[in-house]
Amino acid sequence: MSVELHHRAVVADTHNDLLMAVCARPPERWASFFRERWLPQLREGGVDIQVLPVFVEDRYRPEGALRQTLRMIECAHVLAEGNADAVRLCLDGAQVDAALAAGRIALVLALESMPGLDASVELLPTVYRLGVRVASIAHWGRSALADGSGEDATGGRLTAAGVAALAVMERLGMLFDVSHLGAAGVAHVLELATRPVLATHSAARALRDHHRNLTDAQLRGVAATGGVVCVNFFPGFLAADPAARGVDRLVEHIAHVAGVAGIDHVGLGPDFVREVLHDVTPPCCEDLGYGEVDVYATLPGLAGPAGLPLVTEALVGHGFADDEIVKILGGNVHRLFRAELGRPA
Fold first, then answer.
1. Mind listing the pLDDT tens digit for each residue in 260-286?
2. What is the 3-state secondary structure (H, E, C) of the chain?
3. Closest by Cα among 66, 161, 141, 152 to 111
4. Is residue 345 part of a domain?
5. Number of domains in the chain
6. How far is CA 331 from the centre of its chain?
7. What gap in Å lies between CA 114 and CA 145, rounded to an integer?
8. pLDDT per residue over 132-156, tens digit each?
9. Cβ atoms 76, 34 nearer than 8 A
């Protein structure tokens, strides 16, 4: 029954770094590598909407950050064009709907922390023209736009450039992503936002006191904008005790977000990254700077998108009603994208 429900629902994954792995191949392999390695996993997992973050590794920063950003954006276009029978890179809600109606996976481009743009907010319309529809402005550390959650002790809010970036994104119809943003920065965004904001991959801080997670006040704040909080699957963000890190713990975070923010404001942001890191990280570079979080750890059965039906099974077992599960799996994100994606102010 849960399998039928899973495949009947629109399933949206708002954070999978697969573009890093595809882009690491020679350009002539981008489309075929995606088709061979990732498309089967997305199909098996029933993914209908896939957000593709552009994450620029430290080795490209600062001088090569813009070049790598553009390379990854081009990679997304090439893999979409080379697999046009199966996927579509979508620029607005109508294109998402059209892709789903045609049985194709709707791909949505995102920027993660925007190091390629830095404080050059005037380039946001440029990347918008290239297809970017979601963006965050910080990662773990400090950027020209804001402090990431790893810098929470500074109490840093958005810089002047960060405030300008939020305004430009709202004007363009580009969704602002608060995941990774520091606590003071999230508060600042929620003070200023006039359109819905998105947390692409954040869990509940009330259940796991980690700076990468969102507090109940932040959850309510995102919901108040009309936005959606998509729960991260990283084991280290779900529980401090390794023995407690399983799909049931993930469902507890989903249930908490639903209870605090409302059932209309929760989704899935798995952050499947182990396979990507194995593909792109040199053997010499074991310390990726994430402290106590093991970035190679995964929940049992959820190492990649093929395991997503397990989440539906666990939601059923937890007692969620079918209509609630449909919202969690992707209905809420689909609604948000349909209303806001690419819609200028």
1. 999 999 999 999 877 787 777 654 344
2. CHHHHHHHCCEEECCECHHHHHHCCCHHHHHHHHHHHHHHHHHHCCEEEEEEEECCCHHHCCCCHHHHHHHHHHHHHHHHHHCCCCEEECCCHHHHHHHHHCCCEEEEEEECCCCCCCCCHHHHHHHHHCCEEEECCCCCCECCCCEEHHHHHHCCCCCHHHHHHHHHHHHHCCEEECCCECHHHHHHHHHHCCCCEEECCCCECCCCCCCCCECHHHHHHHHHCCCEEEECCCHHHHCCCHHHCCHHHHHHHHHHHHHHHCHHHEEECCCECHHHHHHHCCCCCCCCCCCCCCCCCCECCECCHHHCHHHHHHHHHHCCCHHHHHHHHHHHHHHHHHHHCCCCC
3. 66
4. no
5. 1
6. 15
7. 9
8. 999 999 999 999 999 999 999 999 9
9. no
Give the predicted TM-score (pTM) of the model: 0.95
In this structure, is residue 145 part of a structural domain? yes
Task: Report the Cα 6 to chain-centroid distance in Å.
Answer: 20
CATH number at residue 242: 3.20.20.140
